[in-house]
Amino acid sequence: MPAATDRVALVDYGAGNLRSVENALRVAGAQNVAVTADPEAVRSADRIILPGVGAFAQCIGALTALPGMVEALDEAVNRRGRPFLGICVGMQLLATTGHEHGDHAGLGWIPGDVVRITPDDPRLKVPHMGWNRVTPAPGAPLLVPGEAYFVHSYLFDPADPGHRLAGTDHGGAIAAAVGRDNIIGVQFHPEKSQSYGLSLLARFLDWRP
Prior knowledge:
Elements: E1 8-11, H1 18-28, E2 33-36, H2 39-43, E3 47-50, H3 56-64, H4 69-79, E4 84-87, H5 89-92, E5 97-98, E6 104-105, E7 112-116, E8 128-136, E9 146-152, E10 154-158, E11 164-169, E12 173-180, E13 183-186, H6 194-206
Parallel strand pairs: 1-2, 1-3, 3-4, 4-13, 5-7
Antiparallel strand pairs: 5-6, 7-10, 8-9, 8-11, 11-12, 12-13
Helix pairs in contact: 1-6
């Protein structure tokens, strides 16, 4: 099956700018995008994208409140090896624990913690908002150097440095992307990152991990 016709499930759990991501995917070449809260549609998809906007606790709560969704994600991604992309808080939910407004269990797919950004320079504001440089680790899949759009107050600190696929800087090192095997998460918003983001989505649509 050509990558452009793969079934892409964009998970709708009430915590993402879904239409912007859907439109960006179509511009990037996707022909079969389903914005869905149906676990069966996620389970049978060829590629899965988990967006996320808001607080960690709110997002993980909304995701786990959808009956069967976490189980469908686990089966499709971890057991069937479907390519997966998490965006912003959708990336952070991959962690073991999020420490935003308390301690909250994440999906635990990539061990690590989500903690508040504390810039070394007190003149730097939090949230980290705007365009910043993405520097991929050697051999990182899908990622290339460039400028992407960020808006976040918390960062993903992976337990294994090998899961850190790209970095950026905001008064200290921040993971711009994490991943392993068929899973990748980006802290920036591809749908807001113009040509850089669209090229990333196009590579994701062709990715055969």
